Every structure is written in structure tokens, then in C-alpha cells.
Amino acid sequence: MEGRLISGDPATVWRGAALDSRRLAGGELFFALPGERVDGHRFVTDALAAGAAAAVVTRPVAAPAGATLIQVDDSLAALHRLTRAVRARLPRRLVGITGSIGKTTTKELLAAMLAGRYRVAATPGNLNNLYGFPLALLGIPEETEWMVAEMGMSTPGELGGVSRLGRPDVAVFTNVRPAHLMNFSSIEAIAAAKAELLEGLVEGGLVVANGDDPRVVDIAESHDGPVVWFAVETEADYRAIAPRVEPDGASTSFRLRVGDEEVAVRLALHGLYNVENFLAAAACAHRLGVDLDRIVAVAATARPAAMRGVLHLLPGGARLIDDSYNSSPAALSRALESGRRIAADRHWAVLGQMLELGDQAPEMHFQAGREAAQVGFSPIVGVGDLAREIVRGARQEGAEAFWFADAAAAVDAVAEQLRDGDLLLVKGSRGVALDTLVAGVLDSEGAG
Prior knowledge:
Elements: E1 4-7, E2 17-18, E3 29-31, H1 44-49, E4 54-57, E5 69-71, H2 75-87, E6 93-98, H3 103-114, E7 120-122, H4 132-138, E8 146-150, H5 158-166, E9 170-173, H6 187-194, E10 206-210, H7 214-221, E11 227-231, E12 238-245, E13 252-258, E14 261-267, H8 273-287, H9 292-301, E15 310-313, E16 319-323, H10 329-340, E17 346-352, H11 361-374, E18 380-383, H12 387-396, E19 401-404, H13 407-417, E20 422-427, H14 434-444
Parallel strand pairs: 2-3, 3-4, 4-5, 6-8, 6-9, 7-8, 9-10, 10-11, 11-12, 16-20, 17-18, 17-20, 18-19
Antiparallel strand pairs: 1-5, 12-13, 13-14, 15-16
């Protein structure tokens, strides 16, 4: 990182980096990023008071006497230069994971599998873009042998930038589905953006690809180096045979076929869609030297990430699936299909609006409501402006349906409707804050 020390000690030692003065553990290098709405320079003093070792700024700022300040021309560019410099020496190897759905679950499964053999670090949460990925990499331990990094994008060119920063040794592609359509003209444009992960892949790097997804197949076949395939529906190097939901609804069983070998797997995650995520992780881990016994053991002890298909058994016997972290048409379809497989007296859903779908949003919400009703969900509760279309679609198919402006307005009505023996699915985009509704329902049922 090129910069000029304008105050403080040039020998200051830092560990990790931060962009938010409220999220400091202590010892980080704070980067003050100028923005249209919030300028990080306003919070330099707060960051230093919270334990930042030093601050990177683009102009002099008021700061405590003796504070270490480094001035650069562009603080984001400086963050990226520092990331590239650190990446040149650590981690020893890096896996980059991208896809429209399942990145976080795949990341967590793969990190757990690799941890049986290597010293592993993974991106915390979903720090996966040009701002978050550098923070994740700069915070990993010196001894890291493999970093498992989620790599995402919301605009063209973004993933290529992240990939060039990370220089992955392995690129994992889970799927390509309609998402962020407000920034892309078509699903083909999304596929082209996902293919940008290859831009930073080291020469001869490994690609792990979903053989059931035709757009992923096209991406993988454009790669000159080795490709490992995983699939459920088609023949592949790693294939799940006869997946089925267990009666508890919280796990899935299948046979994992690797060449001529088959092993029984019980994946302790709700939803058949998680089989695909498991296969992506298993194919990668096995090719990196992890034995199948370890892979099967990780499946049996897996736990869902918060708000991503967490199944709650309520005191009265009802069950609630908390899938409130995010939503898209494809992810919602998967959630509906998996939820419907769980035996219940009633299957019903709280569906929040799906964001970043562009001009197609109203029609996609309408079709989502129709689909929910067609597969057997009723009543259906829509939350958020666009969810009016979910309600309209559900009613057209004969389902009972209600609309609420926001999660706070819906929570009491949902809690009152819940009966013993029900299965309630809660899913919506993060901005709808349906996690607050989940918390309210759990609290009302004495299951918080």
C-alpha cells in the first residue's frame, strides 16, 4: 500500500482491516472510505477510540495526538493494493465459491471438511464483494493453508475484480439463477458475470462445477484446465443417488457415488436443495485430499447458518422454517418444494418481497404466489409492497392470502394463526427484515 505517514509511529503494528468504526475488535487498520451518504473520515476518531491501530485517509482529519494516520490518494484502491500484497504470501491456497444460491452453505461445509486436514480460514458471514472480501482476507491467521472464500457480485465486472484480488487456486460454481436482475438484462448476462470468477483463477487451477446447470456447464467448458463435476440428475464425478427427506424434515439422506464407490450420507440440513451445496463442497474437498469418511462425518454434524433454512420445533408441535436471510424466485421455489415435503396438518408461508428483480419484479411475485398455492401452501402472507402481487397470485389459485406492509405489522396476526401441527415457512429478501417476525413468533410460542 502506497501512502504517506502524516502522524504517529511508522512502526505501528496492525492486524486485520475495518471499514465500520462500530465493528472493531481492536488492532485493525481502519480505511476511511468517502461515500455519497456516509464519509468514513467522519468516524476516524471513533475508530481509533474503539481500538483501531491506525487509519488510512485521503485527507488530514482531526485525531487524537499521536494517532497513526496514513494518507493515500484513494482509500479503496489502497485497500485493494494491500489485499494483493498480502495475498502474494498468504493464504497458501484459496478456494473461491460463486453462484446465485447456496454460496454460504457450500462455504461452511467445505471449510469444515478441509479443517480435518488443513489449517483453514473462511470468509465470515457474506464478506464477498470488493469491500468485504479484502476485510476477510486481511483478517486470516498467518498459518492459513486454505482459505475458503465466498465471492459474489451485484453488478457486471464486480466478481472479476474480487477474483483478481483473491487469485483462487480452485473455482467452485454452484448454479446460475435469476438474481440482481435490476442490474442485469438477462439470465445470460448473470451467467457471464459469474464466469468472471475465472479471471483471477491461477494458471492450471481447478474448476468444480454443477453438471445439472446448463449455464454452469457452459462456464466450466470454457476453462482450459481441469474440471470436476457434481450433480444429482446427470452423471458426474460426484453424484447424489436417490436423495430423500427424512421424516424429521431436518435432514436428507442419499448415497454419494464417487467413481465405483458409494457411501451413505445423512445430511443434517433441511431441504433437498442442500444436497447440491453438499456435493459442491464434497467434490472440492475430496479432490483436495480429504477422505470420504471425513466428508460423511461433516454432513452428519452440519448446522444451517442463521436464517438459512433453520427448522424450529415449537412447544405445541408446530414447526417453523426460518429462511429469512434472503430470497429470489429460484430460491423461493426450492424452499416451497422442500417445505411441502414435511408432513404437517397445514403448510403455510410468510413470503416477503424479493428485491433487485428489476422490471420483471411484479410478474415474478405474482407467479411466486401462484406457485406457493399450487404446491399446497395456504394461508399465504405477503409482506412488503411487491408482496401484494404474491397475495394476488395466491388468491387466483384459490389459496387464503393476506397482505401486510411490513414484518412488524404481520407478527401478531401470524402468531395468532399458528396451530399445533402446522408447518410455517418464512422467506423474504433481507431488506424486509422477516427475521424480526421469526423472533416475534418464537417469543410468542415460548421458543425464543
